[in-house]
Backbone:
């Protein structure tokens, strides 16, 4: 295969996508390309050890909401409303960006969500701003926040273990601690913010791991963006991957004005047993 060749223009354009991993200004053309809405991705995944009662369980997944100027509140509320009918809602970090002020908007954003169990883990921006304040604000709204811990939810008459691994980008992740005390014979769902954490999950267990962080490449120029992200240690940019015998899904995220060919996303995931898949 011939070596990849990039022009200076390719590299400069691809570098705009790095804003998902740090601060930076987007080109005006990229800002103008933002869609005011979001798309809904529906997919089915098999999960080893899924309790028969959880066959067909629907998980609504949102991530990288970035409450505040980056994300129209109307988009957030519409996406939350679109989760109606799911069995549970999970949110995988980056509720804020760089300021504490948007934490006061959490009640408006999440307070009127459809009645269902709701779980969250934290992202790198939550840690940059104030992880404790973000967690407290979410918990006041009835959201269960998991930082290297797990909880058991009763859904459809059976236990679902929800495992939350804290953010790996800021080195707060501890997979062993998060999985301690879980039972591989029962339904499990893994939440974490940074996709490469999937490389450290127990192998070949058919786990379903939901993540975000990348904004789907933010400004997605195909192979150029994918190559840049690999250079940055982020080989999983968007969509579904098989990683170490487990399923990894990288949601494109809901927030941020900086997007091109990476539309904001709500994922509705239906779980099936490995035998049914």
Residues:
């Amino acid at each position: 295969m011939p070596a990849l060749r990039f022009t200076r223009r390719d590299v400069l354009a691809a570098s705009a996508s790095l804003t998902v991993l740090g601060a930076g200004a987007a080109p005006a053309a990229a800002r103008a390309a933002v869609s005011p809405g979001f798309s809904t991705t529906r997919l089915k995944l098999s999960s080893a050890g899924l309790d028969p009662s959880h066959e067909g369980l629907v998980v609504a997944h949102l991530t990288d909401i970035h409450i505040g100027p980056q994300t129209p509140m109307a988009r957030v509320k519409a996406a939350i409303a679109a989760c109606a009918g799911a069995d549970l809602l999970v949110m995988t970090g980056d509720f804020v960006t760089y300021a504490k002020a948007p934490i006061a908007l959490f009640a408006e954003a999440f307070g009127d969500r459809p009645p269902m169990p709701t779980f969250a883990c934290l992202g790198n921006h939550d840690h940059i701003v104030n992880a404790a304040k973000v967690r407290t604000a979410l918990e006041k709204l009835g959201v269960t926040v998991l930082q290297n811990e797990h909880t058991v939810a009763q859904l459809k008459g059976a236990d679902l273990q929800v495992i939350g691994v804290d953010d790996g980008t800021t080195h707060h992740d501890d997979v062993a601690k998060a999985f301690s005390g879980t039972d591989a014979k029962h339904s499990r769902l893994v939440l974490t913010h940074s996709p490469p954490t999937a490389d450290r999950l127990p192998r070949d267990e058919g786990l379903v791991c939901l993540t975000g962080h990348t904004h789907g490449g933010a400004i997605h120029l195909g192979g150029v963006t994918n190559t840049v992200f690999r250079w940055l240690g982020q080989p999983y940019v968007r969509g579904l991957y098989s990683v170490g015998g487990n399923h990894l899904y990288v949601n494109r995220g809901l927030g941020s004005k900086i997007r091109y060919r990476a539309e904001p996303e709500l994922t509705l995931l239906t779980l099936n047993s490995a035998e049914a898949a």
Q: What stands out?
A: Confidence is low (pLDDT under 50) at residues 1-36. The radius of gyration is 18 Å.
